């Protein structure tokens, strides 16, 4: 009811046919000031005759309308409905269960903490062994290089053979060393660490070191090759010139790689100039806050839903299992998003800042993925770039097809997923393996959508398929299965009675 | 894992410092074709050395990032979560209550239908009486005009007095006639119509005719004034020249106004050229489909929630009432949106098309409202333009302040709301009156936000305040109160046992 709008509408005398000039003359031919006043002030008489319906015009939601109106208000409404809906569920949950958060209830056994701590210091020892292996190889390469330079005739067939046999030896040494690290950790976690959180952290550490050592070995193999037998047209990235092979084989260089937020070894990384400690503190604050949030969400919201699902899985009541999956999907999605942000944005950025590691592209905008494949390329770039550099591209180089190389990548990834989930929960039931490996047919199905160039509709469809497969069937189903398997084997994870 | 991307990334040898020209010379100085092949095919050797971390770059969610990434995927996710969440609630509802939809269960009493039908034909009779009143006034005006023309000296003081006394007489005749229509309907509905749906429809009809007759009387008063005593500088809209006063006082002209989708009388409306029957059929199909949807939603989802809230209101358990309000808000919002679309888009457009009524601007994009005031200006334009033309602007013209005129408009509107809701439910408890009248302080509070020019943030805040006040506290609270009052007085509205 603002008077400004009112005035302009009501005094226009809204006729469709009148011409602007004519109106003015009609209003007051003699005095233009009066005429202007007649336009800017409300009509004094005949107030009830104004033609509010002065022209033919469509409703703004009609197809007759030339431009669709903005729907930004409905986006805001969606956010509010989500907040309100979940606020309601939180009240319901609190009425039903009371407060379930309890620090002392958790069953962190003394032996678990001891074993976990021991393994935390044991795993890096294998890194030291890897350093010694590379050091020996580098020594031998220095010797060969001197011999080749003395010859001045380029590498002989015998030299190449010697290089290959050295590589076989080095590869075996690395493989035995690092697989021992993984095998010992896996064995100890599976048989001697009860609490799944401690087990998962330890197993993650071992798998990361396993991957990093493989990258270290492969990269140094190629660097050594280039050092001994450079091929024309194949060159080492200029970035590495700051620290050429074998100068990079130092304990500090390897130590930096151990801590750096990447799985891919490079002798030199792009670095930032200084550490912004305020940035580090903010990120660590985020990690702390989000971890607390995840803990509360798991204990208060996810656990009861999982608990309530047990007899429904046992009785194989499909409608009820679907209902449970849908209920679980919201909370598992929220936890997943918080965990993603805490790990990939906050923690890795804090770590990178402390190490002055320059390349912070740990993820891309995976939430806009237009296909399942796009999601796997963007959500976890450390793992994606690792498998691309050390598995996919080398296999293509050996003449494998795209299909075969992709399958290998997803097979290796699926095995690692099963190790990371199945071993700490003491249930190697293959759901994590399948959940990963079945991405391949899913990518194959959704791939055409990506390439069909359907425009906005195709992109929207692809994004929706990605979210549904990810949210409704991916995370919650796997979580439900491992929780069920755990409960079937051990009963409750904590001492509290739910 | 698309090989195109892989190739380009892996072969770029990603150094930060190299210059493009230099790279080409380094690769193969002699042959540019070979050089190009080196770029487009994967590197044959040294595959594990590629610098995947080749430059300093921030994470895309960091503040360091120059541009924020798109979040369109999260909008899609919200839609999915809403659909999934409500799908879950629908399964839960079906498990708990079974199918509640039942055509024969509803208590449409024979007497209700008889009385409703009778009133449906009685109300237009008062329109005929209004026509007769205007016809008499027009006859008298024709006589005056002939007399004035004979005089040729302009209207005398006596003439003006005569006009005024005629208007007082005409106004009283109209007021008595139309208020009789409203009063009879209200009396009969309150005491003799049990079913609230039949009562509401009848009461709506009476209120609409009441408003239309008032507009008819006011507009013709001004037209008569202009016909008898034209004032220089004050003119009648050109649109009306097709049918000047008193030619517009015909039974067909009033009949068109009775049916037309507007509350504001104009002798002439903008018209379309022809009736598109396919358009009419589509709109009527929407009305039918949405009505069925609203019926199912009310019976299956809204009724159980309302039913479950009864003892919580009785016990004044505030946390539980809030929980119920939040649960009710979703379904009442969905029903409201469906009802809005069915009435304002589908029904009024169908009616307008049949009557070739040109101005279809029955609403604007109220969902983007940046304040509560903007919502009231845009969601129901027939009522808004009515009150602006016949109450707000005339009061401003009499020297009232914006504040006083607005208060009057909201007071009249609040009274009408209470009549429309309180009478058919036989509970004049004042909640509808207050719900409307308390909009004034709400508008006063949110108004500054609109004017503060806070940019996007202010608009977003305003829109969120509007939605929350509208969704969470507006509709569901009023529905809950009248349902409670009804149940307290009569027990269940239908014979079914919930």
TrEMBL record, chains A, B:
Q: Does the keyword Transcription regulation apply?
A: no
Know the name of this protein? O-acyltransferase
The domain of life is Eukaryota
Q: Which UniProt keywords apply?
A: Acyltransferase, Endoplasmic reticulum, Membrane, Transferase, Transmembrane, Transmembrane helix
InterPro entries to which the protein is assigned, alphabetical: MBOAT_fam (IPR004299), Oat_ACAT_DAG_ARE (IPR014371)
Its record classes its membrane topology as: Multi-pass membrane protein
Subcellular localization is given as:
Endoplasmic reticulum membrane
Q: Name one GO molecular function term.
A: diacylglycerol O-acyltransferase activity
PANTHER family from the xrefs?
A: DIACYLGLYCEROL O-ACYLTRANSFERASE 1, STEROL O-ACYLTRANSFERASE
Organism expressing this protein natively: Stachybotrys elegans
This molecule's function is given as: Sterol O-acyltransferase that catalyzes the formation of stery esters.
| Chain spans, region Disordered | 1-36
Q: Where are the transmembrane segments?
A: 72-91, 112-133, 169-191, 333-352, 404-422, 428-449, 461-485
Biological process according to GO = triglyceride biosynthetic process
Q: Which GO terms describe its cellular component?
A: endoplasmic reticulum membrane
Sequence similarity:
Belongs to the membrane-bound acyltransferase family. Sterol o-acyltransferase subfamily.
The catalytic site is made up of 417
Q: In which pathway does it act?
A: Lipid metabolism
């Amino acid at each position: 009811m603002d008077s400004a709008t009112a005035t302009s509408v009501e005094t226009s005398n809204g006729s469709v046919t009148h011409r602007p000039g004519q109106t003015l003359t009609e209003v007051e031919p003699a005095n233009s000031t009066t005429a202007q006043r007649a336009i800017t002030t409300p009509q004094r008489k005949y107030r009830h005759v104004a033609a509010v319906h002065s022209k033919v015009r469509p409703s703004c939601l009609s197809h007759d309308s030339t431009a669709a109106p903005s729907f930004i208000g409905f986006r805001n409404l969606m956010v509010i409905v989500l907040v309100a809906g979940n606020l309601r569920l939180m009240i319901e949950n609190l009425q039903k269960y009371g407060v379930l958060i309890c620090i002392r209830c958790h069953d962190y056994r003394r032996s678990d903490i001891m074993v976990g701590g021991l393994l935390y210091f044991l795993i890096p020892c294998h890194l030291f062994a890897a350093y010694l292996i590379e050091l020996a190889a580098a020594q031998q390469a220095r010797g060969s290089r001197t011999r080749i330079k003395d010859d001045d005739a380029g590498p002989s067939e015998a030299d190449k053979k010697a290089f290959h046999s050295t590589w076989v030896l080095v590869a075996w040494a690395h493989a035995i060393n690092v697989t021992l690290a993984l095998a010992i950790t896996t064995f100890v976690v599976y048989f001697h660490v009860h609490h799944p959180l401690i087990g998962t952290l330890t197993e993650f550490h071992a798998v990361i070191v396993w991957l990093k050592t493989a990258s270290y070995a492969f990269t140094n193999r190629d660097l050594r090759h280039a050092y001994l037998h450079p091929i024309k047209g194949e060159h080492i990235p200029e970035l590495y010139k700051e620290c050429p092979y074998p100068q990079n084989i130092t304990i500090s260089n390897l130590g930096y790689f151990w801590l750096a937020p990447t799985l891919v070894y490079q002798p030199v990384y792009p670095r930032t100039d200084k550490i912004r400690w305020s940035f580090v503190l903010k990120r660590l604050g985020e990690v702390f806050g989000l971890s607390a949030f995840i803990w509360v969400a798991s204990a208060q919201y996810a656990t009861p839903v999982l608990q309530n699902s047990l007899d429904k899985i046992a009785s194989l009541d499909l409608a009820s299992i679907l209902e449970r999956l849908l209920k679980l999907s919201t909370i598992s999605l929220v936890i997943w998003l918080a965990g993603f942000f805490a790990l990939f944005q906050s923690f890795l950025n804090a770590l990178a800042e402390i190490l002055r590691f320059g390349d912070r592209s740990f993820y891309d905008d995976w939430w806009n993925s237009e296909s399942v494949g796009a999601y796997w390329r963007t959500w976890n770039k450390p793992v994606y770039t690792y498998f691309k550099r050390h598995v996919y591209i080398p296999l293509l180089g050996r003449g494998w097809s795209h299909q075969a190389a992709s399958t290998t990548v997803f097979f290796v990834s699926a095995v690692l997923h099963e190790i990371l989930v199945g071993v700490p929960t003491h249930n190697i039931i293959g759901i994590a393996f399948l959940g990963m490996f079945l991405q391949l047919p899913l990518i194959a199905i959704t791939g055409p959508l990506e390439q069909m160039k359907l425009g906005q509709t195709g992109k929207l469809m692809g994004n929706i398929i990605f979210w549904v497969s990810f949210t409704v069937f991916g995370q919650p189903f796997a979580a439900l299965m491992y929780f069920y398997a755990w409960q079937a084997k051990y009963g409750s994870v904590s001492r509290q009675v739910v």
